[in-house]
Amino acid sequence: MPTQTLPEVDAVVVGAGFAGLRTIHLLRQLGLSMQVFEAGDDVGGTWYWNRYPGARTDTESWAYCFSFDRELWQRWDFRERYTAQPDVLEYLRAVADKHDMRQHIRFSTRVDGAYFDEATNRWTVTTEDGLQITSRWLITGLGWLGIAYKPPFPGADSFEGESYVTSQWPKEPVDFAGRRVAVIGTGATGIQVIQSVGQVAEHLTVFQRTPNYALPGRNHALGPEQQQALRRDFENVWEKTFNHVFAFPMEPANRLGAQVDDAELERVLEAGWEAGGFHYIFETFDDMLVDQRVNDAASEFVRRKIRAIVRDPATAELLCPKTHPIGGKRPPLGNFYYETYNRPNVTLVSVRDDPIQEITPTGLRTRTAEYEFDVIIYATGFDAITGPLASMNVHGVGDRTIAEQWAQDPKALLGIASPGFPNLFAILGPQAPFASHPPVIETQVELIGKLLAHAIEQGAERVEATEEAARAWSEQCDTILNATLLPQGMGDRPWFLGANVPGKKPSTLCYLGGLGSYRAAVDKEADGGFPGFTLS
Ligand code: N01
Prior knowledge:
InterPro entries: FAD-binding_Monooxygenases, FAD/NAD-bd_sf, Flavin_mOase-like. 32% of the residues lie in helices and 19% in strands. 3-acetylpyridine adenine dinucleotide (N01) is lined by residues 56-58, 145, 151, 184-190, 192, 207, 209-210, 330, 351, 356, 379-382, 492-493, 495, 500. Residues 56-58, 145, 151, 184-190, 192, 207, 209-210, 330, 351, 356, 379-382, 492-493, 495, 500 line the site of 3-acetylpyridine adenine dinucleotide (N01).
């Protein structure tokens, strides 16, 4: 039962990370009233919760921010090539404060239900602490990675040491000095944690099920001259970013590996490896993710680097990915990741053929061995993409929940709108572009803005994606995925295909056509008067 009913607003927004803040700006421009709910006690979203040691972006800092506020961008202190988590939070706080956004946000308030009323075409949203509010529009900015996946190991509660889930990290620093630490998981998160904790723990044991192609990030501080040059380059940076396949501030390689010989492949891959970060994939060969020979060469190149860096040959071999192509799982960025295994206090344990059986009061047990720890860190991923909204108890037409619908058929037109859920726009819903999130978010919020303006102009009270248009978008996502080599990674459980959570139906949960093509599809939809939506 609600304990308090808030006055009706035009739009309820859930989340105050990049998506929620950008939406506040949009709704202000449209002159719409709003109520924003945020579970955390500050802005930041993903960057509020993921405060584990070593957390930082792996997109260049000057494109991991908003383009809409040019003034803030041009005076912002981009300290490093990749922004550390506290600095991303600082940026988002600055955006919220500069634009006086906090007045719209109720912090420490978790939404626990949303119900569409077909008679009034309005949503009623409820919160865990007993608030209720009605609105015409419901816009969610929950991100792709808001629901942690923690494997249900028997005995997890019996552990007498400290245990942490990376995406629920405490605000107080955790001291690892003099302690025996376990990290479970070697995705992008695990790799960042391992590099940091390995430097301070008495001993770190890494439990790896699937090795990844960790690319060297080559992070560095940005000097005043680099910052000045950047500030003069606003248009160019964002032009490149919004047109780049993965929304990175890079040019396409304009080179096909299929057209060069093995020696040239090697030369260009070496240059990409030296440039660091995703330059290895996106500034080397434009066909790396679609051409088997090029991908094989790029994968083998990384394996050779691992064998050259890691001194113990057995450990190096365990770190070499051999069961999926590069790109078949999302490659993480490391800064001295492989070098970490040369430290005497760091041990790698493969649990691929010897899985973790249970957590014990003193540590954990695999099928063949038992280990003792003071601290266990779970870097075991997320119920990604569909998980956050499916967990919010959203009831659409006919009282069908979005969790039920997406368990069977996780499709959303242009990655924002699912048939059966009118007036609900999910920023970063399923089948949104798989690309660096802030530019995708800005694109999707602009799309929602055009759609809302169109609906208001038409006097429409109900806006719903048609089944046909959502189906066609979903099929396009399938077609693009199947034109790449990425499905070869399915056996290694990529989260972006919904394959990492036991019991979840794997499917094409993202659009891989690139941000530039996505923006063209958005423009076509808007310029055509939104034919994929029914307005009434
Ligand atoms: O999650 P993951 P993540 N026993 O799903 C392992 C973004 N991100 O949080 O691969 C043993 O990739 C699992 O093993 P396997 C980025 O988009 C961005 O690391 O399934 N291990 C895997 O190793 C990224 O891709 C940034 O065999 C188990 C790990 O847990 C996304 O978040 C930083 C297990 C989960 O890896 C997700 O990355 C961090 C089990 N029972 C994250 N169950 C930046 O921008 C799971 N695992 C820098």
